[in-house]
Amino acid sequence: MRRMSTPTETLTRPDGSPIRVLVVDDEQTLADLLASALRYEGWEVSTAGTGRAAVRIAQELDPDVIVLDIMLPDFDGLEVMRRIHGHQPTVPVLFLTAKDAVEDRVAGLTAGGDDYVTKPFSLEEVVARLRALLRRSGAGAERPSNVLEVGDLRMNEDSHEVWRGEDEIRLTATEFELLRYLMRNPRRVLSKPQILDRVWNYDFGGQANIVELYISYLRRKIDKGREPMIHTMRGVGYVLKPATAQ
């Protein structure tokens, strides 16, 4: 498998956050190769080596697309897809099948799979198939501008302007970067170490209270007098989600 060429366009979720992919294959080397190629696209990738792990991770990750091997050590890919589609019915699935397993390919597509590739395959082919699935599903639509939106909260990444409804909000540079990280990961719980690494770009000597401090600054500006959007998940981290009442 040869190195991926430089991507010509970056597909993202509609809110601008990275595409989330779940790769399910019990061949660790192959799973790692696929993960590396997909991360080169700028996507977030999680891997699973068993059907049970795949179902659990899918519930936690809420993937935009799944790469799924038919043959797994506990139960097969068709059962994995059935269980995942039970709670995420619209997520596209790209099956990996053995070259001579025609019946597997037919069964996968009949059962609700969206596409398949046969082993051995090129990384370019897998990426191309996934990009096509993402465009069809709408999850991979490119942002028409550098504006992030979560509920009634909007951020222009170019001009550094932020609004909550009709009110413009003035932020410091650090507050802006923290809010941008939260807005790029809406409804996703982010831990203090994750925030420290992404916003401050280095280990702050274990002083996670700097995160608490800046979260409090943001709350005063974003949430004060309004339905809250920034929530604390005790012992886990913070999550930004649309207000229950707009």
TrEMBL record:
What's a Gene Ontology MF term here? transcription cis-regulatory region binding
DNA-binding residue intervals: 145-242
Q: Which PROSITE patterns match?
A: OMPR_PHOB, RESPONSE_REGULATORY
Query: Origin, by domain of life?
Result: Bacteria
Q: What residue stretches are annotated with the Response regulatory domain?
A: 20-134
Q: DNA-binding among the record's keywords?
A: yes
Q: Could you tell me which residues carry 4-aspartylphosphate?
A: 69
Pfam families referenced in this protein's UniProt entry, alphabetically:
Response_reg, Trans_reg_C
Any single GO CC term annotated in Swiss-Prot or TrEMBL for this entry: protein-DNA complex
The chain positions of domain OmpR/PhoB-type read 145-242
Coiled coil ranges: none
The name on file for this protein is Two-component system, OmpR family, response regulator
Q: From which lineage does this chain's organism come?
A: Bacteria, Bacillati, Actinomycetota, Actinomycetes, Actinomycetales
